[in-house]
Design goal:
seven-stranded mixed sheet, Aminopeptidase, 3 domains, globular, Glucose Oxidase, domain 1, 17 helices, single chain, Transcription Elongation Factor S-II, Chain A
Length: 591
């Protein structure tokens, strides 16, 4: 029976892989070279019409929604120094200065003072007094540093990008549309980015004495109707359960590497899986989001809000598809995947490409807008150029385009896409999706996550010392680990049974419930169906302040202790709830 089922799966996967063709995806990529798919624009709407028309021509069931999304779209920006105008770009959600601009004295913070400052994760740790000044710092104007300098009293901010080009970006920490919990976090200062060569003259002038500059920024901000396109390919055995494959179709400039290649990938996936729809056990939803670049993932967040209950009840996994198939991108490292999906992803990549993959914890970035629902997820960016090549070219890290530094610039044109690399990455997506859609058992191993949790708890408990009792969390985790071992002991017995078998369903229900509890406590603090700020989230974030306890004193020490006691309660309860779900499944299987 096992051999027959494995043969069936292998035959289907082989057939879907054989169905892949560059024709449909490459035609989309070429069409998108003519569109600047800025959210809220006519070009974005034309891109949505194109995707919907292709789905219509292929006979694939789909819907086009048109929510109002909260966006900030840069119009023009500049930096004026001693009468000279310097080229600049503002990130989305910088404020508009008005025609008079903002004039102030510059305080420069060298890169050595903020060596860890990067795209998304790290706030600057500097002791320079910036109150009432315009800060100039090397790096990207991402949410953490922009918010940190605002809190320190800066009135404006200038970011020196690493190269000759200036990268577009977004500086708000608010994820998706604002609500009553977070609207007050919207940025309050004008922000611009300039190139490395243009910064050098400013730095030299600062050596001579104080320097006054003027920032001019103009942005469109408000609620804009934007199309969301979702294809729905129904499975045959368990149609209510589905996998969500998704990516954004809006762009900075023409944005071929970020993310026309992803849009093309999604369309080809919809085509090949629809062709073999009668052989799919579960359903596949394929979604194209607007508002990624100028709304901080507004489209995917709208979908998470609007269909949150269905996602919570029935979504097996979410797969983010962003910047595959780019020039020189032949290796798989720094691939995003949640720990429970790691072994599954590595195996699929090795089997279809022959490549050894390396991964990492997903950043609080991309369209990972489903963590607060508790969805297991894998991928964001996928293939990248070899590290050696990146070093040889003198490239610096960026957030897409296979590590081509055309990312978020006018240079992200057709030459950034690579047909062969795209087809190889498509094979990875086909293999992983086919297996989640058709495996009788969901192929996620939470034992690996439980072991990681044990290491994380050990580190936090060691940092907290005797001041906070972590034992309830350790005890609950031990019970969860034992329950998981009992559940996985039935893998061999169940893997040959049909998807609809009650014991298989009980096993899979437990896997989904594990995600709903454990993804939530591993990636969120705001609670289910809320949104997290777009800043780095440490593992088991309720307990991460344990690292700060040793250096805290007085009032703050008591605050951290109180926070950790509550955090231990939340984490321990989640472990207990997860263990109960697993035990119910084991009882059903044994019964």
């Amino acid at each position: 029976m096992v051999a027959l089922y494995e043969a069936k799966k292998a035959s289907l996967e082989e057939a879907v892989l054989a169905e892949l063709s560059p024709e449909v995806p490459w035609t989309l990529i070429e069409r998108f070279t003519t569109l600047v798919r800025e959210s809220g624009s006519e070009d974005e709407r034309e891109a949505a019409r194109y995707i919907a028309a292709q789905l219509e021509a292929l006979g694939i069931p789909h819907k086009v929604y048109e929510p109002d999304l909260f966006l900030s779209v840069p119009v023009k920006s500049s930096l004026t120094v001693n009468g000279k105008v310097i080229r600049a770009k503002s990130p989305a959600f910088s404020i508009t200065t008005g025609p008079q601009g903002l004039t102030g004295e510059v305080v420069y913070i060298p890169s050595a003072s903020s060596a860890a400052l990067d795209l998304l994760d790290v706030s600057p740790t500097v002791d320079v007094d910036v109150a009432g000044k315009i800060v100039m710092i090397e790096g990207f104007g991402g949410p953490p540093p922009v918010r940190a300098f605002e809190q320190k009293g800066a009135i404006g901010q200038i970011y020196i990008n690493p190269g000759v080009d200036i990268h577009w970006g977004i500086c708000t920490t608010i994820w998706g549309a604002p609500d009553l919990d977070n609207y007050q976090r919207q940025p309050r200062t004008p922000v611009v980015s300039i190139s490395r060569p243009d910064s050098e003259a400013l730095i030299e002038q600062l050596k001579q004495g104080p320097l006054t500059v003027t920032l001019n920024t103009e942005l469109k901000e408000g609620w804009f109707p934007c199309p969301v396109v979702v294809a729905d390919i129904q499975g045959q055995e368990e149609p209510e359960r589905f996998v969500l494959a998704h990516g954004h179709y809006d762009s900075w400039d023409v944005g071929i590497g970020d993310n026309a290649v992803g849009d093309a990938t999604l369309l080809e996936l919809a085509r090949v899986f629809y062709t073999h729809r009668n052989q799919l056990a579960r359903s596949l939803k394929v979604a194209w989001w607007p508002g990624h670049s100028t709304g901080r993932y507004a489209g995917s967040t709208w979908f998470a809000d609007t269909f949150g209950l269905d996602l919570a009840r029935n979504c097996v996994a979410q797969v983010d598809i962003d910047s595959p198939g780019c020039r020189w991108a032949t290796e798989y490292y720094e691939v995003s995947w949640m720990t429970e999906t790691e072994d599954f992803c590595k195996q699929a990549i090795m089997e279809v490409t022959g490549k050894v993959a390396e991964g990492e914890r997903p950043h609080q970035a991309g369209d990972y807008s489903f963590n607060n629902i508790g969805l297991s997820g894998f991928f964001m960016l996928l293939s990248e150029m070899p590290r050696e090549m990146r070093n040889e070219k003198g490239y610096y890290p960026v957030g897409g385009c296979g590590m081509n530094i055309a990312w978020h610039t006018e240079n992200d044109q057709l030459e950034i896409a690579d047909k062969d690399n795209l087809m190889r990455d498509l094979r990875v997506y086909v293999a992983t999706l086919q297996r989640v859609l058709n495996n009788p058992l969901h192929p996620f191993d939470f034992r690996k996550l439980a072991a990681e949790f044990n290491d994380t708890l050990t580190g936090y408990a060691s940092a907290a010392g005797d001041e906070v009792n972590f034992q309830p969390a350790f005890d609950a985790l031990a019970d969860l680990t034992a329950a998981l071992d009992s559940l996985h002991a039935y893998e061999g017995k169940l893997s040959s049974k049909p998807v609809t078998d009650p014991a298989v369903r009980a096993y899979n229900d437990a896997i989904l419930e594990l995600g709903r509890e454990l993804v939530l406590i591993n990636f969120t603090r705001q609670g289910r169906f809320r949104t997290e700020p777009a800043v780095k989230v440490l593992p088991l974030p309720d307990l991460a302040p344990a690292k700060q306890l040793a250096s805290a004193s007085g009032h703050m020490r008591h605050i951290i202790q109180t926070h950790l006691v509550r955090g231990v309660n939340r984490v321990a309860w989640a472990f207990e709830s997860a263990a109960r779900s697993v035990q119910r499944a084991v009882d059903t299987i044994e019964g």
